Amino acid sequence: MSDLNPSLNPRDIAVDVHPAGGPAPEVIDSTVPVIHIDDLAARRGDGIFETLMVRGGRVRNLDLHRDRFVRGASLLDLPAPDVDRWLQATDTALAQWDAVGGGEASLRWMYSRGRESTGEVTGWVTVTAEAPSVLRQREQGVRVMTAHRGFSLSISDDSPWALVGAKTLSYAMNMAALRHAASQGLDDVIFIGDDDRVLEGPTSTVVAVTGRTLSTPSQQAGVLPGTTQAAMFALARSRGWETVQRPLTVADLRAADGVWLVSSVRIHARVTELDGVTLPRPDVAAEVEALAVEAATA
Q: DSSP secondary structure string, 51-120?
């Protein structure tokens, strides 16, 4: 991990996974450069990652993240991750995090195709304290704009190499969308496709609530399967809610009782404004948000 980010502080933890074998995972200094300049993570964004919540000294929804990580590696034709080695690196990172004070944090698995000169994969685990904006958006909600994703809903069929469903390191477009929203005085984005079909947020899954039904866009058409959404829907069904994956349009979001963006670390952020239209807080908001918190921290 390279010290290119001035926000790094002594509490940031980094662990080298050594995914190709060799020594056991080991803590590395997060303030000095250790990634090679020809690593394809940096050169081409060629790899995958997962972001997990750390709460109470452990990561949450580990199985869902592990399964998506393994699936993503397969989609990118990366060597199948040695899951035990990644879990060992996670334990090492958590122990170090606890030793420097612990607290809520983001833990990331980063798996790269590796150095162009050697062809050997690389991987590391990092732990970083939860950003203040995460708590603020969880408590206050977000003002959101819609933005066209830039590809058709048939991309999975037309372009099987498009890596639909993989959480890749190639997030430049997602980050550009968030910067554009910020330049407009907004907090977040919901990507849409043809015919105003709702896809997802740059770092989140869309959940609409109508009555006692939770809806999320179908996972086809370029929507990454959301771990928090999956855990939330499973919990909601056990509490008597209806849950459904279906095509959603922007009009469906406006007509819903409420709309949330859900993700592992932020957990939930209610959409308070969509394309300039205020979305009132529904009566079930507290119950929905409690479901999200319980699911995300299971």
A: EEEEETTEESSHHHHHHHHHHHHHHTTPPPP-HHHHHHHHHHHHHHHHHTT--SEEEEEEEE--BTTT--
Order the strands of the 58-59 sheet from edge to edge: 26-28, 13-16, 122-129, 105-112, 47-55, 58-59
Beta strands in 179-221 (DSSP E): 188-192, 205-210, 213-217
Q: pTM for this structure?
A: 0.87
Predicted local confidence at residue 10, as pLDDT: 55
Residue type, 151: F
Determine the average pLDDT of the residues in 28-37: 87
Contact (CB, 8 A) for 297 and 60: yes
157 and 62 within one domain:
no
Residue with tokens 């940031």: 12
Looking at the fold, whether 22 and 166 belong to one and the same domain comes out as no
Residue 162 has pLDDT above 60, yes or no: no
- Residue 85 domain boundaries: 2-130
CATH assignment of the domain containing 277? 3.20.10.10
